[in-house]
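Box 4.2: Ligand-aware structure prediction
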Amino acid sequence: MRCALCDDTGWKPVDVDGVSRVVRCDCWRQQANERAIDTARIQKRYAHCELTNFEQHYDSLRDAFRKATRFVEQFPVVDRGLLLIGSHGVGKTHLAVAILKAVIRAKGARAYFYETGELLKLVRDTYASDTNEMDVLRPVLEADLLVLDDLGVDKTSEWVQEMLGHVVNIRYSERRPTVFTTNLIDSDDPLHPRSFLYRLGPRTRSRLFEMCDWVYMDAIDSREVGGPDATPDQIQRWQKNSPMSPRNIEKARAVLPGKAGGQLRARPRERGGSADLKWPGGRAGS
Ligand SMILES: [Zn+2]
């Protein structure tokens, strides 16, 4: 169907103080935003994810949805990003992708989706080729919005911690919002194999507190409980034993440090406002 405003030229006539001019048509902006979504690196299996089809069967999911909607409305004037925490299957990635598409559509933002493991591999691959790791990192560090999916899922190492710490740090100091998803646990035990401390290190963990709202998403995950036809016994066992069941999350929440909200705005800029992206680490490999 031809655009009634611009006859598909992409330019529509407007009247400015009695003078006829042309400006970019709404249809052109819309198409540009759809192209930006196509190049945002969203994987095919998440292509259907929108805010409108996010399932909100539990309180924590309704709360996460409200925070996501508010984030999109306020973007880019947001103090903090979001850290979506929960077990597999609760819809963290769905919500993150939906936020990403919404800020592209509504705000024309430059926004990208990366699985954390995929990003680490892309950087690592540059070490064995002629490409520079900055070619990989630049869009990650400079995007108006970055979604970093499954933070901490990979085998940790000094290099992994440094690389992720670098990405987190730069986005923090340049005040560019990030939406993370993770199924890590905030345990005080630095040796807990699934804790933020163990996987990412104490500095990155405290940065995440400063730069993000921690949004806990929990629901009974049908896969974990034993399928959609789980018996009450199976559900009870899950509630008791899973670190992601609502009651265990409450316990974990009780040990969280106080809110570090508002600090982003008050902090002086560390980097003198330059967009210098130099990466101090060496080529240590994984
Ligand atoms: Zn048009």
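In the box above, the bound molecule is zinc ion. The CA atoms of residues 57 and 219 lie 8 Å apart.
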